[in-house]
Input
Amino acid sequence: MNPVLLGLYKYVDDMIDAAGRLRDSGYEVSILSPIPLGHEIEEALGEPKNHIRYFTFAGAICGFFFGIIFTLGTAAMYVLPRGGRPIFSATPTLLISYETSILIGVFFTLIGFFLMARLPYYKKRVYDPEVNVDSFGLLVDGIREDKYGEVERVLKEHGAKEVKRLEKE
Amino acid sequence: MGSDRTIEQIPYEDVNADVVRTMTETGRLYYIFLFLSMAGVVVLWGLPWAYQIYTGQGVTGLQTPAFWGIYLANFIFWIGISHSGTLLSAILFITQTPWRRSIYRSAEAMTFFSVMTASIFVFVHMGRPWNFYWTVPYPNQRGLWLNFMSPLMFDVFAISTYATSSMIFLYFGSIPDLAAVRDRVKGWRKEVYTVLSLGWRGTDAEWHWLTKAYTFFAVFIIPLAVSVHSIVSWDFALSKVPGLSKTIFAPYFVVGAIYSGSAGIVTLMIFLRRGLKIEKYITKTHFDKLGMLLVVMSLIWSYINVVEVFTGWYADTSFETESLRYRMFTPPFSYMYWLMIFTNTVMPLFLIFRKVRRSMAPALIISLGINVGMWIERYLIIATSLPRKFHPYMWNDYIPSLVEISITLGSFCFFTMMFLMFVKLWPSVSIYEVKEDIGIPFRTKKGHH
Output
């Protein structure tokens, strides 16, 4: 498997310029950074879709119906007459459903995150601890053997303080 | 760079180093406090509780007609303290408030530990804690099923949902920082943080999904936190007891919870910044903003108190009048009541002055005073209502026993112990959000920051 190139930058705008240029040339680029760069990346590389909302919505709906079935089902299976009060009561049913909507919504959101971000992942991957401190990394993949020099030159032209050739797993 | 920054310009590298330092370098004073808090947990909490379990609930001051006492006052107090951490963090996240960034992690931890402390009081109050499983919702051979019409059952669901969601919120927001710690430590710590950080690398995709999911968590947390303290208030307000059956209790409890929680954050941050030497991250600007919040919450809380007294007086029923008289003009409760008014309505007015908000000693005194007042508020709600129900021949003052007072003090030791352990095991200041506050480095000025 061909190695990847990792350009380390001090400035975000330098890295984003390089990312845009290399992506337009057909390379696979991804960014490693110590902080979220939402707006900055979206402007340069386009806004990714937000699939997690479907998980959240599905979780909240499941939780709501779970709460309804749980409370009404309990009342139906184990009838507890309480001095003229209704066996099936709307207020506590909705209250419990409100809580279970949130609880299961939170769980589904968490699962959605794990699936979309592909975490947890404990095998070795291309990484440099500097990108969790004060450097912004531009990872370039899909480079042909004869193009490494050219990509490296582009990365440096845009201000990379260091370019590393790293083996993919 | 951001114009709304709350901290000075610090190199990114220093942020990582400083936060990891707070976890790995430990002074003697830390161990002394940890030992004292652990000793407090054993002596003030563990032993009296064991004695209570062995001897029975008779060692408490609980007797006819009041079987709810100081334990439940503590339960409400600690649930209240828990409120501002996660709730405030979520609100300030949604509104993109910059001064949230340095303080929210510890505030969220405060939430989690105070929910833990509060939950333990349910067991202490129970008398026979080994029978707790009777309340767990599952079919069983005894044919005992849950009564979902009971507000106590609402409580079980609300608080367990809040505790679970707060824990996830705290952990989830910490993942990038756990990875940052992983990269700097060695030995057993490296192994632990490697597992906890889930293989985080900080790719654009990971950040994208983290930010989106975190927003949804924050959106869930806000109505959840409001519902939790409303439901806690209904434990009382859905009864017919004078002094408890009040329609204003839900907003009163929610406001009181945010108020006491915010004061708890101020107290905690003063000790944290000094103890961990992180004054450059938790700055006077943070106390300035928190002070303003306390003034606002104090005014709302005071207004609700006036409304409660006014509507009780205006209703002019003998039960309500007696309830107010007992609370406001009968010693020893009257002393506590007027002390509460002083600490929660009068003292916070000094926070109107910027100089007071930005001075640590006055801020500490006022925030501690507010929490003393808020504890008294919860105590008075219980201690002046149930012993004074409709029939005077049933009246009987509730005086907590030494066992109850000791366990109450022990709960503060427990909370302190948990928090002291937290600051050594978890990054108590968010590394990546502090960096966001410092600003994103651009060569040109075309960026957002």
